[in-house]
Amino acid sequence: MRSVRIAAAAASICILANPVSAGPVAPLSRVIGGSVSFGKTSDGRTARLYTLTNKNGMRVRFTDYGGLITEISTPDRAGKLANVALGFTSAGEYQARNSYGLGSPIGRYANRIGSARFTLDGKTYSFKPNNGPNLLHGGPPGYNTRYWSVSMRPLGINHGAVLTLVSPDGDQGFPGKLTVRMRYTLTEHDELRIDYTATTTKPTVLNLTNHTYFNLAGEGNGDVTGHLIQVRANSMAETDRMMLPTGRILEVAGPYDLRDPHVIRDGIEMLKTSPAGGYDTPYVLANAPRKKPVLAARVTEPNSGRMMEVYTTEPGIQFFTGQQMRGIDKGPSGRPYVRYGGFALETQHLPDSPNHPEWPTTVLRPGQVFRSTTIYKFVTPIDRLHS
Ligand code: BGC
Hints:
Elements: E1 35-40, E2 46-53, E3 59-63, E4 69-75, E5 81-83, H1 91-97, E6 105-106, E7 112-113, E8 117-120, E9 123-126, E10 135-136, E11 149-155, E12 158-167, E13 178-186, E14 191-200, E15 204-205, E16 209-210, E17 228-231, E18 235-239, E19 245-251, E20 262-263, H2 264-271, E21 280-284, E22 294-300, E23 307-312, E24 316-320, E25 344-348, E26 363-364, E27 370-379, H3 381-386
Antiparallel strand pairs: 1-2, 2-3, 3-4, 4-5, 6-16, 7-10, 8-9, 11-12, 12-13, 13-14, 14-27, 15-26, 17-20, 17-22, 18-19, 18-21, 21-24, 22-23, 23-27, 24-25
The structure holds beta-D-glucopyranose.
Beta-D-glucopyranose binds next to strand 24.
């Protein structure tokens, strides 16, 4: 394996200062602990939809079914709110149509495990492959199809919820009973913060991420190829035709070098004929994993002026451009989700880490507490003026 030394600071990404201006957005009433029906799933159970708001009028909605993030409404440069997270209008629709993983928490192992097997402490665990010969996103049933228990919390001046899922020993084929807690917080600085903790009863592997697809022009508003993307990574895991890491860590180059802002379209033009058909790229973040979240990526949509930054404690981030969407499914706006209609920035450990002991470990043992934090921060041009 050719190893690449990862330089500390990759690119000239400047961090904008807080605080965030209230702007011209009308304040929404706060809802703590309230929820409304989100329709029934096929087992007859009624899903609940929860709302978080902040003083700037930002709104985040999520459901106990799958722990899915169904809406992230943020203002544009004129103060007009739009939902920038792709999704559906009921739990039943997610259950029937969400092969994309819109809004989804992914577990027990986000991304791929090569040949659908790994060995831990001398024991080999094998799975039914669901992505060519490999295992993708832990296999069925995904964590985004389970009911999570929700407890709404007023968290200081912020506003949040704790979602808990108990994944039994042997669930999806993984060893150990895993208790996962995900805290969703909407801060007064327009950040959606996700804090994960997990504990296990037996040695296991885990890789947790959130798979929300974003369109900063508003969900269903065409494709995202006009957005500008910047990823603060000097290196990436090389992948094969099935997007499984080959084991080589490469310096970013050509369309994969996103250290300076690039129009997504330019990279996609070069990657259209690649096996991935666009970006589906595991980037390696410098000096990670780490205790405090650090800026990993920034995306800007020039027409609306919306900008999103991603901060994480994770050692990797998968940039994915939604090439599998075909204009068939429609979101809450009623407009179809076309090819490249959303992008995901999935913070995680590197794919197939259980088969690469030389990479940051994904093993969790009894007595240890897994911790991970990712922040999606939304910044409008108003903030720029005030920073
Ligand atoms: C993967 C893609 C996959 C998508 C939907 C992404 O995390 O990298 O290859 O198509 O999830 O499951």
